[in-house]
């Protein structure tokens, strides 16, 4: 093996053996000796208070930018519609909402990380510490030492002294989770009071769902079942499925003397009653009608309603009767609604009160 002495590439004084033990004898004894730690060199922030203040302001600025970016994230979510696109070079056409959310959230998270790194590299203590290996279990002395090290680390972090950094860091960490909270809005549209209202209103004609023709009383015979929808609700339109899921009604003509419920009789016209087709259990369409008993059956879970007695539940898991639509006849002889349903249609929900 050739000697390294005199090598033009590696000066003798920089070799591990030279630094740790000094000279050829040390290298001969242990050619892979521990070179030890280089001498500690103070940073400019350690000796110049103005430089330390600049670093503190830099870290605080990064945390503040993070706060503003999080606010921008929330504002972008509110401002930009989901279908708005913008041209951004070199990305081309891109969703304004996705771009703004990605940029603001990325900046918020980056600034928190960059601020923490800059704080650690310029203001926290950078003295090297050697941790000796020890058994896994901790004795009392080790626990005491850990607590002491923690206290020392907290002191050296200058968290108590650098109040500007501390306050802006806490602000950034407190605000950035709001980004996730705002995203919960995408779990679905807020129902508001939409579940309490349908497309029915006073004066709207009852239209045969199969023929799209307005209904007259003579179109409905005793024992027949006719499916109806509100006037103006056309199949194929954007809102049809959402509206018909609440506004679909069934018309049945009973003998007035067979109607047991007074309100049902008052809200009918010559024995023609209009009830919601939406089962109050899980929202299936109620379509099976038994003429002799005046019962209608939901085919999904066999909830059964008595149309001669306020559509009350006589069997099955449904929680309440089918809502009735109050009807009358206009001056042209067509059946029309006298308003919306008096209660929400479909399955129960806790806000019904």
TrEMBL record:
It is a multi-pass membrane protein. SUPFAM superfamilies: ISP domain (SSF50022). Residues 1-44 are annotated as: Disordered. PROSITE patterns: RIESKE. The keyword Transmembrane helix applies. The chain crosses the membrane at residues 59-79, 99-120, 164-184. Keywords: 2Fe-2S, Cell membrane, Disulfide bond, Electron transport, Iron, Iron-sulfur, Membrane, Metal-binding, Oxidoreductase, Respiratory chain, Transmembrane, Transmembrane helix, Transport. Pfam families: QcrA_N, Rieske. Residues 16-27 have a biased composition (Basic and acidic residues). Iron-sulfur subunit of the cytochrome bc1 complex, an essential component of the respiratory electron transport chain required for ATP synthesis. The bc1 complex catalyzes the oxidation of menaquinol and the reduction of cytochrome c in the respiratory chain. The bc1 complex operates through a Q-cycle mechanism that couples electron transfer to generation of the proton gradient that drives ATP synthesis. Belongs to the Rieske iron-sulfur protein family. This is Cytochrome bc1 complex Rieske iron-sulfur subunit. It comes from Streptomyces radiopugnans. The lineage of its organism: Bacteria, Bacillati, Actinomycetota, Actinomycetes, Kitasatosporales.
């Amino acid at each position: 093996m050739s000697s390294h002495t005199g090598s033009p590439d590696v000066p003798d004084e920089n070799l591990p053996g030279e630094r740790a033990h000094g000279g050829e004898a040390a290298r001969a004894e242990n050619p892979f000796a521990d070179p030890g730690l280089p001498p500690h060199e103070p940073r400019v922030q350690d000796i110049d208070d103005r430089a330390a203040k600049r670093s503190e302001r830099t870290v605080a600025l990064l945390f503040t930018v993070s706060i503003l970016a999080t606010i921008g994230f929330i504002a972008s979510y509110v401002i930009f519609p989901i279908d708005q696109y913008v041209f951004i070079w070199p990305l081309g056409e891109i969703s304004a909402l996705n771009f703004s959310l990605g940029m603001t959230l990325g900046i918020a998270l980056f600034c928190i990380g960059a601020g923490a790194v800059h704080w650690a590299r310029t203001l926290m203590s950078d003295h090297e510490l050697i941790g000796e290996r020890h058994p896994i279990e901790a004795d009392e002395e080790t626990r005491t030492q850990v607590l002491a090290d923690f206290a020392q680390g907290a002191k050296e972090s200058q968290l108590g002294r650098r109040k500007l950094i501390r306050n802006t860091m806490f602000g950034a960490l407190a605000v950035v989770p709001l980004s996730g909270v705002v995203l919960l809005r995408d779990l679905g549209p807020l129902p508001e009071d939409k579940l309490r209202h349908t497309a029915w209103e006073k004066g709207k004609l009852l239209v045969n769902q199969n023929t799209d023709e307005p209904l007259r009383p003579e179109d409905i015979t005793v024992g027949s079942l006719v499916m109806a929808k509100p006037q103006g609700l056309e199949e194929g339109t954007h809102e049809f499925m959402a509206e018909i899921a609440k506004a679909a009604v069934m018309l049945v003509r009973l003998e007035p003397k067979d109607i047991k419920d007074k309100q049902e009789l008052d809200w009918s016209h010559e024995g023609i009653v209009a009830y919601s087709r939406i089962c109050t259990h899980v929202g299936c369409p109620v379509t099976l009608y038994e003429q002799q008993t005046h019962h209608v059956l939901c085919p999904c879970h066999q909830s059964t309603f008595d149309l001669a007695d306020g559509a009350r539940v006589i069997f099955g898991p449904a929680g309440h009767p089918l809502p009735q639509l109050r009807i009358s006849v206009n001056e042209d002889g067509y059946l029309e609604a006298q308003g919306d349903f008096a209660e929400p249609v479909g399955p129960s929900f806790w806000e019904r009160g």
